[in-house]
Amino acid sequence: MQRGWKMALSGGLWCCRRVLSWVPVLVIVLVVLWSYYAYVFELCLVTVLSPVEKVIYLLLYHAIFVFFAWTYWKSIFTLPQQPNQKFHLSYTDKERYENEERPEVQKQILVDMAKKLPVYTRTGSGAVRFCDRCHLIKPDRCHHCSVCAICVLKMDHHCPWVNNCIGFSNYKFFLQFLAYSVLYCLYIVTTVFSYFIKYWRGELPSAHSRFHVLFLLFVACMFFVNLVILFGYHCWLVSRNKTTLEAFFTPVFTSGPEKNGFNLGFIKNIQQVFGDNKKFWLIPVGSSPGDGHSFPLRSINESQNPLLANEEHWEDNEDDSPDYSGDSSSLAMETET
């Protein structure tokens, strides 16, 4: 009976946590909906008198708004990608690992598994990176998110403002969302400012619209400053081919720590996120190269490149072990084990 109450309480707390996690997203959505009303109705339809100016303002505004909303949607609802089953311990290996009491033997089990996988990063002590919650060997740049309770490929951070973990599957969308957010705020500031001055001087009569226009400019400026800083930081990360986690914790490779281990040069670094085809760079469709499990390394030549050297080995062992999934049960809340 007591155990049942504990399980019910735990389930209730989990549900409350899931509901509360959507509060930041709801706040952003409400602010955006209000900004839409304030700009379209109170500014363009009520305050702006010139028909030509109305049309131009509305067309440009909606063009930016569509991409802004589209990228925000993709950032929220594109699920973070988890490691392939190849990285999970098989049932036999899991039994061996958990029943083994000698740490050195446990480490050797992981080492033997890692030899079959394109894994080149290690822990600070040089051991194979292993997640004891998901029961898998972590691919390079993969980390466990304690908020999502899963291992995420090329994890950057967990963002409460999109209620999602930002990683390989949606980092491009997150960057585009930041870019279009900056453009959205900048457009509002530049088009509203002249009417803000007119309202401030008392040249326009509508008191109701005055409140919306003045407050719209204030909110847009506030968000613009914060978003420019955040977007600039992530642009710097992309130019160095780093994640937020890698900026704080230097990756350790088999040869030792190397903060620029994934840095391939400015253009190639951008292509690692947005892809080779430039026509997809501004559109929120998936174009990041690779599968998120392995990445080109700065210090490895073509014959040793993990994307090439392990390709045959990877395919040869595609069906060696049965499926065994771990449990699939913030700005930056970097949480990993």
UniProtKB/TrEMBL annotation:
Belongs to the DHHC palmitoyltransferase family. It comes from Microtus ochrogaster. Pfam families: DHHC. Its EC number is 2.3.1.225. InterPro entries: Palmitoyltrfase_DHHC, PFA4/ZDH16/20/ERF2-like. The gene is Zdhhc15. It is a multi-pass membrane protein. This is Palmitoyltransferase. The keyword Transmembrane helix applies. Its main location: membrane. It comes from the Eukaryota. The keyword Transferase applies. It is found in: Membrane. Residues 313-322 have a biased composition (Acidic residues). Residues 129-247 form the Palmitoyltransferase DHHC domain. The DHHC domain is required for palmitoyltransferase activity. It catalyses: L-cysteinyl-[protein] + hexadecanoyl-CoA = S-hexadecanoyl-L-cysteinyl-[protein] + CoA.
